[in-house]
Specification:
Layout lengths: L14 E4 L9 H14 L7 H6 L3 H13 L5 H19 L6 H10 L4 E5 L3 H4 L7 H4 L2 E4 H4 L7 H10 L6 E5 L2 H9 L3 E5 L8 H7 L2 E3 L6
Parallel strand pairs: 1-2, 1-4, 2-3, 4-5, 5-6
Amino acid sequence: MTAPQQPLLPLNATAAIVDFDGTLADTAHIWYEVDQTFLSKRGLMYTSDYPERLAALGFVEGARYTIERFGLNETVEQVCEEWTRLSQRIYRQRVVLRDGAERYLMRLRSAGIPCALATTNDAKVLYAMERIDVPSLFDTCVFGAEVGCGKDRPDIYQEAARRLGVSIANCLVFEDIVPALRSAHLAGAHTCAVKANDKSQRWDEAKEVADMWIDGWKHL
């Protein structure tokens, strides 16, 4: 007798909501490069708490935070435009999905399981990538700018569930950062922490907050 096959989505979930940066793609080093370039241009010091604070905020809220933190005489639009320009150039040719990630997403789609991308990254950045066809991987893509807040609030997950036509209670949210896992959980979703190749990830805390965790996509 063969062992029963493990479900593609555990915890009785019927839909998936997936983060991009850190979760599906190793991009911490890219944002380190972008942050270093942005801050050094203004004679500012990079500290490890800065990217951690930005991770859940997205471009607009992150720009507001940056302007306030460093007392910049720049507009939110100017900061976002520079971040977009810097990251778009790198994402276009260098970003790839983590091992096994595309195969797992394709298995979900083939099984008829609805799947949404929920990211605070910018659509202009992700849609510019030459090595990843984002729209082909998901039934819908929700960007932080569309809901007007970061992942420290659950709006992006609620909107993703709405677009998929499912209850948030039936969604499994894959995330790598603690604030996002907390807000998704508070919204009523099941949560799965994904170990990222990012030394700033609070992995022990992420595992405690989430309903379950994985250390990668290769064995799913």
